[in-house]
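tool_call: predict_structure(chain=1)
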Amino acid sequence: MTTVRTRIAPSPTGDPHVGTAYVALFNLCFARQHGGQFILRIEDTDRQRSTSESERMILDSLRWLGLEWDEGPDVGGPHGPYRQSERGDLYAQYAQQLLEAGHAFKCYRSSDELDELREARKAEGLHAALKPADLALPQAEVERREAEGWPYVVRMKVPSEGVCVVEDMLRGSIDVDWTQVDAQILLKSDGMPTYHLANVIDDHLMRITHVLRGEEWINSAPKHQLLYEYFGWQMPVLCHLPLLRNPDKTKLSKRKNPTSINYYRRMGFLPQALTNYLGRMGWSMPDEREKFSLGEMMAHFDIQRVSLGGPVFDLEKLTWLNGVYIREDLDDQGLLLALREWAFNEDYVSQILPQVRPRIETLSDVAPLAGHFFSGMPPIDERSFESITLERGELLKLLQFLIWRLERVSFWDKDSLLPEVKRLSNYFELKMKVFLAPVFIAITGSTTSTSVMDAMVILGSDMTRARLRHAILVLGGISKKQAKGFEKEFRALE
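tool_result:
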């Protein structure tokens, strides 16, 4: 009998996402239900955006939630390496195999040519998907570009017509029209694989039997199925889980909701409460109870109990459940331990002490001065910004532009944040002190406190951006018309 093996394969390109934890939880429970194994693999083929810091945060956050893996980059295993960046030779070898078998081809098309081809198809009312025939160049031109050392990518060959039938554990047979599927890039010009090639090769070599992933991958399933056929391998059983939604039913995104596990950890949510809540996302216990442990979920897990309706990630409901855990599961000693682990620990407090020491005369000065380091959203309203002389629209733009710039900071330290703030203060033609005044209020809830730049570093990227978003909301929010104008202006700034 084949041992069930599932996996989670996050990309270390940002903060650890609650969606990653949700998919990891369901993969772990499915594996344990069948007495199988759960594997963690790092998909770090995006050289520009992948960071070791992001990988560390992902592993740390999943462990904090109680999700443990049997094999992975930190624990090893018989099917390593478990980082795709360390498996490069494998991908090149299999890409060459596809080329030799005629299932893939080298594409020397430039990005400008690709744009022209897509625009031409769009003008004709055709699908944007580019097929091998669309991408073909005269043989003489191919030879010329090859001789001149033009960069190329390796693309897979896909059918131009017909229907691909994909079998799904929850959804049954899914029909995808081949006309919508492009000749996917498998190997990029820098020799690194795309998700599609690496995903299939790794899942096969790591003996993954069941792939539970988000429904956004349904349209990619035909490409993966075709690659398994090309290689002559058995495809894992697929299960596409429903996407997490905002209360307004839109896809959960950091533009509308805090999505990073770091945020919920920093806000003081208990890991068992967050894991419990994620377990309620489209799934329920046989007795329908709201509160259950990870162990209980594993013991009663049945993938067929997953509902395909988009589960709503409701912050109010999570907060309620967290309160239930605090009241029912923590005695005074347990609460004290939780508080210490959360923020009243040596590592965190030692970052704050240098900020408050020069500003205090009595120990009782510490609480009002450093309170923002131990709270959630600051108690601010419109009146909090009365001292700011900027016009309301300009103030909202300043805060929103700062959020967007901070979303791109890959390493969160003062040396990385300062250039972003300086760049925007120059753009708005404001002195740094004037530019930072509303930021100071948004982050600390006050006009007199510790250094706002240092506070942003200590609070972290998630809490910083959440507080800036909160400030925008208390100032009345940004209308759709404003948002459109802001986005256009921000793109021009880049």
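agent: The CA atoms of residues 427 and 439 lie 16 Å apart. Proceeding to next step.
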